[in-house]
Specification:
Layout lengths: L1 E3 L10 E7 L2 E9 L7 E4 L5 E5 L5 H10 L1 H13 L12 E4 L2 E4 L1 E2 L7 E4 L2 E4 L8 H26 L6 E5 L4 E5 L4 E5 L7 H12 L9 H10 L3 H11 L5
Parallel strand pairs: 3-5, 11-13
Antiparallel strand pairs: 1-12, 2-3, 4-5, 6-7, 8-9, 9-10, 12-13
Helix pairs in contact: 3-4, 4-6
Length: about 240
């Protein structure tokens, strides 16, 4: 089991419809959440909308709620379209996420052409005047490989779970996965997220050792060890497109 960059609403029993906003039809997911206390409308990073239906709520009322807030959704879509996309090339001056902060790739302070600075990290590169993405990603991957496995074993011990192996990989569409044999695989890009998101992603995979599914029972396990997991999921939904 694993967590996708943008969780698939269909896997949570969501209903997909379309809503007319600003002269066009946009997908809107209507998702029940027994823990929710009210209807909530959000715009997903992929441009679709999501309405959370609280306990006792209905699909019909969720639909009306979205229609009443169509003007807000149109403004959110406009802001979304104006948001800068993640640059394919990383050069001096490019901003990337590192430990949850948007930091600028800088030239080495001593003027060396073979090194750049990302936050507190000094990274060796072939040519600091060129695209340095590959070298920076390799460095962050190595850093994640050093930092993430001990965290997994720490949390596994705290929650009396047995982890046999931890790998840090370059998954294209998942933040992590867990096998029945106790192998946890994590995406190196977790090093780009804040600590509370990193911890949630680790706990998300560890809880699959108790429930190898995404059932309501599984999510109760997640909530028991990470009560604010919704906040972490919200951060991921808002920033996932900038972490690729």
């Amino acid at each position: 089991m694993g967590l996708n960059f943008i969780p698939d609403p269909a896997k949570r029993g969501a209903t997909e419809e379309f809503l007319a906003v600003g002269g066009r039809q946009i997908p809107i997911w209507l998702i029940r959440n027994a823990r929710a206390r009210r209807y909530v409308l959000r715009l997903r990073p992929d441009g679709a909308a999501r309405v959370t239906i609280p306990r006792g709520g209905s699909i019909a009322e969720a639909r009306r709620f979205a229609e009443r807030n169509a003007a807000w959704l149109e403004r959110a879509l406009q802001r979304h379209s104006e948001r800068p996309t993640h640059p394919r090339e990383w050069v001096i001056g490019t901003k990337i996420y590192f430990r949850g902060e948007l930091v600028e790739i800088e030239a080495s302070m001593n003027g060396e052409t073979g090194r750049v600075r990302v936050g507190a990290e000094i990274i060796k590169v072939k040519d600091s005047a060129a695209d340095v993405r590959r070298e920076i990603e390799r460095h962050l991957w190595k850093l994640a490989g050093t930092e993430l496995p001990p965290k997994v074993f720490e949390y596994a011990l705290a929650h009396q779970l047995t982890v046999r192996r931890v790998t840090v990989r370059n998954q294209k569409s998942r933040w992590g996965s867990c096998s029945r044999r106790g192998t946890i695989s994590l995406n190196w890009r977790i090093i780009q997220t804040p600590a509370f998101v990193r911890d949630y992603l680790i706990l998300h995979e560890l809880m699959h050792l108790r429930q190898m599914n995404h059932s309501h029972r599984y999510w109760r396990e997640v909530e028991s060890v990470c009560p604010e997991y919704d906040t972490a999921e919200r951060w991921l939904k808002e920033h996932s497109s900038l972490l690729r």
